Amino acid sequence: ARQAAMAAIIEYEDLEPVLDVVQALRQKHFVLDSHTHKRGDSAAALAGATHRLQGNLHIGGQEHFYLETQISSVMPTEDGGMIVYCSTQNPTEIQKLVAEVLGVPMNRIVVDMRRMGGGFGGKETQAASPACLCAVIARLTGQPTKMRLQRFEDMQMTGKRHPFYIEYDVGFDDEGRLQGIELDLAGNCGYSPDLSASIVDRAMFHADNAYYLGEATVNGHRCKTHTASNTAYRGFGGPQGMVAIEEVMDYIARFLGKDPLAVRKANYYGKTERNVTHYYQTVEHNLLEEMTADLEQSSQYAERREAIRTFNAGSSILKKGLALTPVKFGISFTASFLNQAGALIHIYTDGSIHLNHGGTEMGQGLNTKVAQVVAEVFQVDIDRIQITATNTDKVPNTSPTAASSGTDLNGKAAQNAAETLKQRLVEFAARHYQVAETEVEFRNGHVRIGDIFLPFAELAQLAWMGQVSLSSTGYYKTPKIFYDRSQARGRPFYYYAFGAACVEVIVDTLTGEYKMLRTDILHDVGASLNPAIDIGQVEGGYIQGAGWLTTEELVWNDKGKLMTSGPASYKIPAVADMPLDLRIKLVENRKNPEDTVFHSKAVGEPPFMLGIAAWCAIKDAVASLGDYRHQPDIDAPATPEKVLWGCEQMRHKSAARRASGEGAEPIVSAPSRVSEASPGSPSPIQDAPVGASLLEKAPGLDHSVLEQK
Which of 157, 324, 399, 442 could pair covalently with 502 via S-S, beta carbons 3.0-4.6 A apart? Predict the structure, then answer.
């Protein structure tokens, strides 16, 4: 197949590509119309604000780098249909698209998805291409067909996290509290929309993060460039919106000479007032203040802030930074119709249970959690439950496993099916043994019926002999949510998940290298279904988020070809990038007030945004070069090259301030956002020490820990 592809002769003409999102924005080169959230009169608020700042920010994309690349296998069946084995987060869409390309009804196509070797959003839509190609070849040849992309092919062909360009105009008072803001969020969608409509929407929904914006206008633009169509990635646009407002918080703090955390807390949503978002959803069950206070104390934020200032004052090369940032992330598909799920449960006469649901397992522990839910309903051991592959001829019309909804939707659907079967068994047992239904109790693999105790398997056998159906479907749809796009207002999210991270870093200002020294995380998961899984998700989410904002840089040439198409040039976080000290705690005794699965909360995407604290901590370290008087010129990702450039810019600004004779008053200029030094410009890298990194010689580091790591 590869030889045949190489033999193909393609005639084409080179045209001038649009590769820059800023150029696309200025030319209004869009794949879809722009959208606006508006509350109040932001222009008037800005005109009358005590202080006003303007700036811009570039936020890079991110490669999914799932361990298993895109892969599909298709087998023709005797009835003219196809069985599709595909690594996908969205089996129903694969079923629909394969049926379309073959010109057959959907009932001729069965998609079987046992597990993925990672997804992160990259297999929500983009798994369709290999599946459809295999289906066409299988139809033409009558033979089973399989396609697997090599790593470099996968990286070059598939979409990434949307890069964003941000422009902001913000007004605030002497305490740093926002009075008005205008934000323009321009997403680089690539050549076609894919999921860009909803992704840019979610970026807009999360442009507030944890903060009451005051009078606000938020514009979302879906820019068209001549690159692969970008797609879903963990957080689905939310992280880009949050990075934008965290940049604003830091900028305000530098301008006022305040601790960034103080500015953040001054802008937190309140519980009874200042608690309505710019899209008119009320922020209920707000844990921001309590969680921040808890993390401040447990991480010793105030003491470490003073210690870091002392360290930086005595260290001209190595600089430490500290940041504590919050997370408020909305849970639900923003496309409301997707908030539904189904499940299927069979109880066999030996008491074993077969479970199938519409979610897909990609290593996040979904199957374990859903099995736990069913085991809890029947009060049996989880070993009794067998979950089979996600299959479109068992549970049809499924929503994708995305938007952190896997357990919320499929767990509730499975719970619904299990409760239906349990009620049938209760009614049968009460009738068979002539007792009240209230006297039937499931406990520890047995069933108490009045004074009689039966093993669960025995009751299942009796019920079957009593002609009771031991099979049931389950269904769930998320309540309360709606969004009127024409009015740009509603309740798009069922609830919010909260979190906070405190990160300390050390930066070598001669090389731009940095190291995370310590990370403290407090995260809200409601009543955790499985703390081990949830902590693992928090760990992985934080590291993946920090990687996006630090080491993971995508580079295209002037023809639009991706140059970082493998692990040699695209750097995901490795063991050496982990914090030397990582402390994670789940919020205790805080059930989700909404009627979710046993009052738990989603944990897939929210921890990703905890990584923003690492980016802010790096900027904090660089800001110390200018006595915290200027906002560092560091776009995301903050690669060592960009950090080094930011250090040089900070030194120039600091020197200019001293030369001008300005004392304590801050001189604030909008970040220039130059991502890398110009060719031929002087670089302090030439003066970098030879041998061991300065980071390894940093005073105050526990070198025994460093060696162990």
Answer: 324
In terms of residue numbers, what domain contains 368? 340-477
Number of domains in the chain: 3
**Which residue's entry shows tokens 């526990």?**
702
Condensed to tens digits (0 to 9), the pLDDT of residues 158-217 reads: 999 999 999 999 999 999 999 999 999 999 999 999 999 999 999 999 999 999 999 999
**Is 376 labeled as catalytic in the residue annotation?**
no
Which residue of the set 182, 246, 605, 648 is catalytic?
605
| Side chain identity, residue 531 | P
Give the position of tokens 């699965």.
597
Of the pLDDT bands very low, low, confident and very high (cuts 50, 70, 90), residue 1 is confident
Q: Locate tokens 């998320």: which residue?
A: 478
pLDDT-derived band at 698 (thresholds 50, 70, 90) equals: low
Contact 88, 125 (CB under 8 A): no
Q: What is the pTM of this model?
A: 0.92
Do both 118 and 169 map to the same domain?
A: no
- The token pair that represents 392 in the structure block: 């479109």
Q: State in Å, rounded, how far the first CA of the chain is from the last one.
A: 45
Whether residue 135 sits in one domain with residue 190 = no
Number of helical H runs and strand E runs in the chain: 18, 23
CA distance 402 to 122: 10
Q: In what order do the strands lie in the sheet with 82-86?
A: 145-148, 71-76, 82-86, 109-113, 390-391
Residue by residue, what is the 3-state secondary structure of 657-674? HHHHCCCCCCCCCCCCCC
CA distances from residue 76 to 83, 137, 142 in whole angstroms, order as listed: 6, 10, 6
CATH number at residue 217: 3.30.365.10
Q: Are residues 702 and 632 in the same domain?
A: yes
d(CA 68, CA 89): 13
